[in-house]
Specification:
Catalyzes the condensation of (S)-aspartate-beta-semialdehyde [(S)-ASA] and pyruvate to 4-hydroxy-tetrahydrodipicolinate (HTPA). 46% of the residues lie in helices and 12% in strands. It is an alpha/beta fold. The chain starts with 9 loop residues before the first strand and ends with a helix. The model has no long low-confidence stretch (mean pLDDT 97).
C-alpha cells in the first residue's frame, strides 16, 4: 500500500499566461509558478487542461516547461502534462520533458477518441516506455469520456515509475482500491479533497490553489496530522471559492486567470480559443466568491 506523496501534498494544475497577440507570456507564466510556490504549493503541473494544453504546440510546451523549471524547479516539484489524444504526440512531449529535467509527467487518458481499455493501455504503455520519469496517471471521464478501469491500473503497476493517480472521477471509494494496488492517489477535484484523503489519498492537484493555496495546504496538513475538525472548518470556509472557481459553466483556465488578475499576479485574464475570458459580470461573481471565502 502507498502512503507517500511522491510529488508533495499540494500541487496546482497551473494556468499559462498569454500576451495580447496570443503568444505565450513566459515571464507571466513563471510569475504564476512563483506565486503558487510562495502560497503553499509543493509543486506545479504545467501544460495540463488548466494550462490550455490542447491549444499549445510542442515547442511552446517546451518553452513553458523550461520557464517554470527555471523559476521554481529548485524549490518545488515540476510535473509536465503530456496527455493528448495522439499517442505519438504524447511520446514526443514525454521525451521533451525528460530532456528538460522535470520531476515527472501527468498522463491523462486519451480524450475524444474514446478508445477501449486495450487502447488506453496501449497509449499509456507507449508513453511510459518513452521516458524514465515518474508518471501520474490522470482519470477525468468528464473530459475524456473514458474511465480508466481497475484492470488497466493494475497492468500499469508493472512499471515501477508509474507511481500515482490524479483522480477526478468522483468515485471516492475506489481510492482505497488504487492505494491497495500501490498508487499514491491525489484528488483531482478541490471540493472532494477531504473525501479522497479519508479513503487513503495523499493530496490534491488543485485549480482553486491559484487563489487559495495557503489555506488548502493548511487543510491537508490538518487532516494529515489528525485534526479532522480543523480540516473540515477550512474546507467549509473555502466553499464559496470552490463554487466561484469550479462551479460555473465557464470555469478552469478562465476562472483561474481571472482570480490571478484580481489578486494582482497577472494584469490580464487572456485565454486562447475556444475558451473566452470571463466577462465583467462573471468577474464580479468570481470576486464575490473569493471575498466570501476571505481570499480577497
Amino acid at each position: 500500500m502507498s502512503t507517500s506523496a511522491p510529488f508533495g501534498r499540494l500541487l496546482t494544475a497551473m494556468a499559462t499566461a498569454f500576451h495580447e497577440d496570443g503568444s505565450v507570456d513566459l515571464d507571466g507564466t513563471a510569475k504564476i509558478a512563483a506565486h503558487l510556490v510562495a502560497h503553499g504549493n509543493d509543486g506545479v503541473v504545467v501544460s495540463g487542461t488548466t494550462g490550455e494544453s490542447p491549444t499549445t504546440s510542442v515547442a511552446e510546451d517546451g518553452d513553458i516547461l523550461r520557464a517554470v523549471q527555471d523559476a521554481v524547479g529548485d524549490r518545488a516539484t515540476v510535473i509536465a502534462g503530456v496527455g493528448t489524444n495522439a499517442t505519438a504526440h504524447s511520446v514526443e512531449l514525454a521525451r521533451q520533458a525528460e530532456k528538460i529535467g522535470v520531476d515527472g509527467i501527468l498522463l491523462v487518458s486519451p480524450y475524444y477518441n474514446k478508445p477501449g481499455q486495450v487502447g488506453v493501455r496501449h497509449h499509456f504503455t507507449s508513453v511510459v516506455e518513452a521516458s524514465d520519469l515518474p508518471v501520474m496517471l490522470y482519470d477525468v471521464p468528464g473530459r475524456t469520456a473514458t474511465l480508466i478501469e481497475l484492470e488497466t491500473y493494475e497492468a500499469m503497476r508493472s512499471y515501477d515509475h508509474v507511481v500515482s493517480v490524479k483522480d477526478a472521477t468522483g468515485l471516492l471509494p475506489r481510492t482505497a482500491e488504487l492505494v491497495e494496488l500501490g498508487y499514491s492517489v491525489y484528488s483531482g477535484d478541490d471540493v472532494n479533497t477531504l473525501g479522497y484523503l479519508a479513503y487513503g489519498g495523499v493530496g490534491l492537484v488543485s485549480v482553486c490553489a491559484h487563489a487559495a493555496g495557503t489555506r488548502l495546504a493548511a487543510m491537508i496538513d490538518s487532516w494529515s496530522t489528525g485534526d479532522h475538525a480543523e480540516a473540515l472548518r477550512i474546507h467549509s470556509s473555502l466553499a464559496p471559492a470552490f463554487a466561484a472557481i469550479m462551479g460555473v459553466p465557464n470555469y478552469g483556465a478562465t476562472t483561474a486567470k481571472a482570480a490571478l488578475e484580481l489578486l494582482g499576479v497577472l494584469d490580464n485574464r487572456r485565454v486562447r480559443g475556444p475558451l473566452v475570458a470571463l466577462d465583467d459580470d462573471e468577474v464580479a461573481a468570481l470576486r464575490a466568491g473569493l471575498v466570501a471565502a476571505g481570499l480577497l
